[in-house]
Amino acid sequence: MMPTLKTALCQKLGLRTTFPIFTAIAATAILAAFVPGMVGAPQGGGQSATPEQVKVKPVNYLPNPYETVPNFGTLPDGRTWGAVSAVNVDADGKHIWAGDRCGTNSCAGSDVDPIVKLDPNGKVVQSFGAGMLIWPHGMDVDRQGNIWVADTRSATPKELETSPDAAGKGHVVIKFSPQGKVLMTLGTPGTAGDLPTHFTEPNDVLVAPDGSIFVGEGHVSQGADNAAPAPVARMSKFSPDGKLTKSWGSWGSGPGQFRSPHSLAMDSLGRLFVADRGNSRIQIFDQDGKLLDTWYQFSRPSGVYIAANDVLYAIDSDSDEVRNPGWRKGLRVGSARTGEVTYLVPEHFTKRAPGQGVYGSMGEGVAVDAQGNVYAGEVAIRGLSKFIPRLIP
Q: Given 206, 245, 282, 366, which residue has the most CB atoms within 10 angstroms?
């Protein structure tokens, strides 16, 4: 059998192809140099790199001052963790909230509580939401301690066959009290559609200090290229009582467009940071939707979190030689003020992460407690990981 072009190049240059991470990064860079048009050509899964993205030198080699604690947290009754992307810090700065997809990757037909609160040692101290959610994806905790959850999708036809009671759920943002009481529902449960009454795959929710509510929509929009009709990919702003006040953005790769506004964060200046995952960038807006800046140096962010001191945490679960050539998965830590990237926690060394490239895995959701401990919601390997800042002054 003839070797692949990448294998042949590595052999010619004396590179060992037995190191998958090296092959995925270095060999792609070699191809980019020797094969005209390779970088920026259509990517697998209906995605392509933008010209702005490919101009940025990958930020892959930085200090890692964190100790990784895998498999953080124990669920009640020995229950196994499912996929987790929704994670945030309680108003007390100590406890952690997570949205577990009920031991698998969906809560359709499940009778367990998907929303759990963990103490600093990883013990669940509270849970709620059984039978109310299908696919918890994004989460925020407001200043009053209320928990906001984006339930991204409704049940699939296959799920409805086995669990008819899963109908009428999903495509909503739900505000829960700290005890699990439903205080507000945005969107129409179980039905995708147009604003102001419906959402289409809400990815994440963020509550600003003044109570304004921001929602990013369109999960599958990241996998489209030259789609007709274009999928939903937009940002919306609501008043504290849930009335739509503004909506902006459309599907695409231009300024202010999105290919999945996957995660939201806000800095101390009130600027809204949107992890535009399908475009491998962070777009920064004011609270009226005016585009202020675009950053590519934080790779392909699935999740973004900004601490009170404006330290920015961007977690990349998706990069590989197909979807974001030359970049490695990992947690990049830097400044929301300057855009400088300071640290990189590299990917977990798993042989394969289904749906997230052929090598390595890293979480999608990210949150940071008052002590600087970082928590990653893991979709591929499931559950939570904790990163403790052992070497940060």
A: 366
